[in-house]
Amino acid sequence: MKCRHCGSPLCLPFVDLGFAPPSNAYLTVDQLEQPELTFPLKVMVCEQCWLVQTKDYAQADDLFDKDYAYFSSTSKSWLEHAELFCEMAIGRFGLTTNSHVIEIASNDGYLLRNFVAASIACLGIEPTQSTSEAAAKLGIPQCQAFFGQQLAQQLKHDGKSADLIVANNVLAHVPDINDFCQGVATILKPQGVVSFEFPHLLNLIEQKQFDTIYHEHFSYLSLGTVQAILAEQGLEVFDVEALTTHGGSLRIFAAHKGAQSISASVELLQAKENTFGLFRRETYLGFQTEIEQIKNDFLAFLLEAKSKGQSVAAYGAAAKGNTLLNFAGVRPDLVSYVVDAAPSKQGKFLPGSHIPILPPSALREAPPDVLIILPWNIADEIATQNQPLRAHGTQLAVVMPEIKLV
Predict the structure, then answer these.
(1) Is 186 in contact with 156 (CB distance < 8 Å)?
(2) Could you report the per-residue pLDDT of 285-318, keeping only the tens digit for each?
(3) Can you list the domains of the chain with their CATH numbers?
(4) Which end of the chain has less neighbouring CB within 10 Å, N or C?
(5) In what order do the strands lie in the sheet with 395-398?
(6) What is the pTM (predicted TM-score) of this model?
């Protein structure tokens, strides 16, 4: 395999999580009786541009189909995050009713609805039918398609270039990252700004966040690598912020080269990445052994609970949890069910593990002895919502980066 960005041969392995189905390929009852498609889940490192990337096995249109079940609006904290961003962007970049905002991978309108409320024209580009239709019901103009250079050229021809492009948690999801960034440069106005958010590779390594690896994530990104990719398209990172979202993310702002002055924050984060060793092969060696220990500790925890006759359930039918459960080989005999607030997932089964997905009301009807919070990045929010369970003696726990009670 060659690097998706620079084309160099990939020889440095990083992670091997075995075989797994796409993390959002939830199953119906009928599908439980049918063969299930799985793909190797392996991650390699390019020692030329240091883009960390999955091996090519799954196609994007297999991963993001019309029944894609992830709806961003399910999380209250994510809605608040989006609202704060929009307020900041309107003020900082002087957006008015004459401006045009484009969000790429706009999901169910969780963010753009704030610009609609501010009477700022916007467009959501979203390939999945289910979420795009939800956004359209909020009055958000939609373009249901995968984004790339070809679509960008068409939108620019149609007079739909952007003063602000928002691309939250999408850069890691695109198989052709060069074409995607070329499209961003094409559709961005001369004085426009693009904002990317993505989980920071440094945190993934430092905090052993291997459960953020799944087929839908083609790339695992650092500031330095993203700078190099954008620079080839004439775009320049002028500011960067460290965020707590998704276990530690970066928000970077970029513009056409020379259009904005460069913040000192960029050089500071560059230095941090260099000091940590993101551009040295030694940093990636040994990670496999560390995550296998986490897996073994998790299995030991579940087996001990079973030996004591304790009931175990999980919260959050998210991609993170599916990676963890499938890597560990957990099945319904160890975790009897998982609850999730998204109606689109309820009544289905987790891919690979085949654990049933129930509504959160199941926890109140029959409180388990142990509740595993799978989306650890919003563990505090989930723990607060489920505080009444403690009165029944339920223990709330997270697995990453180590087993601990919440």
Answers:
(1) yes
(2) 999 999 999 999 999 999 999 999 999 999 999 8
(3) 287-405 (3.40.50.720)
(4) N
(5) 357-358, 337-339, 312-315, 370-373, 395-398, 404-405
(6) 0.90
